[in-house]
Amino acid sequence: MMHDADGVHDEALRQVARRLGAAAADRLDVERTAQAVVARLRAGDAPARSPIRWMQPGWLRVAAGVVLIIGAGLLVYRRLHLPPETGVVPQVAVAPPGEFLDFTSGQLQDVLNGLDSTVEMTPTVHAGEAGVEDLSEPQLQSLLKAMED
Amino acid sequence: MPPAEPALAPAGDAQLIAAWQTGDERAAAELVRRHARAVARFLSGAGAPEADLDDLVQETFIRAFRAVATFRSQCQFRTWLLTIGGNALKDLGRRLARRRVVPLDERLESKDGDPHERTVAGETEERLRRGLTRLPRMQREVFLLRAQQGLEYGEIAAALDTTPGAARVHYHHAVKRLKEWLQ
Q1: ipTM for the complex shown
Q2: Are B36 and A3 an interchain contact pair (Cβ–Cβ within 8 Å)?
Q3: Mean residue pLDDT across chain B
Q4: Helix or strand or coil: residue A7?
Q5: Which of A9-18, A57-66, B74-83 has the lowest mean pLDDT?
Q6: Which chain A residues are closer than 8 Å to B35 by Cβ?
Q7: Residue B25 contacts residue A38 (beta carbons within 8 Å)
Q8: How confident is the model at residue B83 (pLDDT cuts 50, 70, 90)?
């Protein structure tokens, strides 16, 4: 009995508490739960490793270091083993970026003029744009002469 | 019929825990078999909806096995599991509260199960269940560990990181309030 003249006994309350959840617990399929827990534990290990591990700062540093070493190696190889490019573009002495700060305005002007002349001396002619009408008179004459030969 | 896994020799929880720490999945499964019903009873008494009970029991064991290195035998393994279950239930309550479908206490009250069974189980049991959901968490867990699981105050205190005296006070407050609601 739960009630008497003094109300609810502690012991009676405990008896009800002991029954609490018993039916739900009996309905639990313990074996299925055990297998599900083991399966989840097993599956939980795999994803924790693969993608996240590569995102660790240590691995990123290693990857960046490898890229830098390969890049530097390629540059050194090209400098040592490939012939320097020969072109008609005149070389313009360009100081390292920091040194521009020490230039006077006249020196800066000279550098800019040098860059302008570089651009002017390397006209770009696209395919299909050049025609006979673009040739000067001496060039036309030499062309005709060559055709006669 | 599939061949059964080789059975484990009868072992204590400590041995099974040690075996699991070396990767023995059979030991983990055996620990689940031993304690799953007690965890389910505790969670159900604490207000877990029956529809979520299986998931909560699984979640309790998953958390326990992943954190088993922190288990220092300060209390029994089962008692430790029950406190982990309490945390899992609290997290479920937070998730349900964020959805704001219905108030948390109502969601945590189990309304599942066969109505006939619930009638048989008795109105008092149902009222006790409802009363427990209205208690502060510490009082609810101390009451369940003491009254439902039959633990001593020292064991309860160790599991809930409090003192036996404080656990006793929580229990008596819980009983007093539950009596008021049940009368």
Answers
A1: 0.78
A2: no
A3: 85
A4: strand
A5: A57-66
A6: none
A7: yes
A8: very high
Q: Which residue has the tokens 């078999």?
A: B33
Strand partners, B37: none
Question: How many angstroms separate the Cα of A126 from the Cα of each of A85, A116, A123, A130, A131?
Answer: 22, 20, 10, 7, 11
Nearest residue, CB atoms, A40 vs list B62, B125, B182: B62
* Chain B closest-CA separation from residue A10 CA (Å): 7
Which residue in this structure is represented by tokens 């060559």? A146
CA B158 – CA A10 distance, rounded (Å): 23
Residue the block writes with tokens 């109502």: B106
Point out which residues pair with A3 in neighbouring strands.
Answer: A8
The secondary structure of A130-141 as a DSSP string is --GGGS-HHHHH
Per DSSP, helices labelled H in chain A are 10-19, 22-27, 30-54, 57-81, 105-121, 137-148
> 0.80 exceeded by the pTM?
no
Element (H, E) at B9: none
**pLDDT, mean over chain A:** 71
The two tokens of residue B124 are: 């008092």
Query: Binning pLDDT at 50, 70 and 90, where does residue B1 land?
Result: very low
Summarize pLDDT for B30-50 with one digit per residue, the tens: 999 999 999 999 999 999 998
